[in-house]
Amino acid sequence: MNCLDNKLNQLNVKTSKKRYYNSEYAKVTIPDKSSFELGEFVGAFSGDRNYCFNEKTGHHRIRIYLHKNDDIDYAYILKSLIKKLFNKTACTYSKENCLIISMSSRKIYDVLKLILFFGNYKTLNVSLNGEVNDYDCSFLRGFVRGLMDTDGYVSTNGNICIGLISELAINQLSEIFVKENLIFTRSKRKVRGKMKYPLHMLSISRKSTKKYLEIIGFSNPRKRKFAVERNLSAVGGI
Q: What pLDDT, on the 0 to 100 scale, is given for residue 200?
């Protein structure tokens, strides 16, 4: 059992204590071990997301932001994943060009804080707690999928790419791709406008597209479709 599995078990023990019995905290389940699906949820939250605590209500509000028109199908997939993992029904609503998946749960927040580091400026600092080697392969593959589903994209020439201002997260993705023997390149790009931090880019070589889709892939139907259509000769009809 790895260290993450031990920590998840500790959270489940906390739930069984009397003061949490029959509370909303107890109704939300926690996976008994790390898994591809847990990694996928954590990765999706690491992409476009928001967390806030309402001192008046005591609610821990977790939101994941998607594209209003392009990610409708993926929103249903992500909501089903949340229900399966935590027995929690998330709600969705739209605001401007965003489709927002929202839930209130101290317990899910506890899981996220257990696995992720995010400081006051989450976009700049978000990364996995500890070392990549602290997590098993299945969890890491799920983490990459969730992050690519939300923050990644497929370029017009077929490269699977991601750009983050968190250099820590890009370093960890690089380490995961090295472990998986995926060929990739890295670069850094200045962003115009008010953004004062550079964008750290990672692009998977088309030589590794087939392997990437086989071992990690996409849950986001739109991005999976683009990846296959723009790499038909490389992926062999996956």
A: 94
Distance, in Å, from the CA atom of 136 to the CA atom of 28, rounded to the nearest integer, reads 24
b or e along 71-88 (b: 16 or more beta carbons within 10 Å of the residue's beta carbon)?
A: beebbeebbebbeebbeb
**pTM as predicted:** 0.88
| Gap between the Cα atoms of 127 and 208, Å rounded | 24
pLDDT for 18 equals 43
The angle formed by the CA atoms of residues 128, 37 and 83, to the nearest 5 degrees, is 115
Write the burial class of residue 162 (CB in 10 Å: 0-12 exposed, 13-18 middle, 19+ buried): buried
The whole-angstrom separation of Cα 86 and Cα 17 is 18
CB distance 190 to 145 below 8 Å: no
pLDDT at 237: 47
The domains found in the chain, sorted by start residue, are 3-9+33-217 (3.10.28.10)
Q: What is the pLDDT of residues 9-48, one digit of tens each?
A: 777 656 555 444 445 555 677 776 779 999 999 999 998 7
Q: Which CA distances in Å does 131 have to 118, 156, 206, 231?
A: 15, 34, 28, 33
Amino acid, single-letter form, for residue 104: S
Candidates 126, 167, 173; CA nearest to 152 is 173
Q: How many CA atoms lie within 13 A of 52 on its CB side?
A: 8
Q: Return the structure tokens found at 207.
A: 């030589």
Q: Are 74 and 219 in contact (CB under 8 A)?
A: yes
**Nearest CA among 195, 175, 93 for reference residue 130:** 175
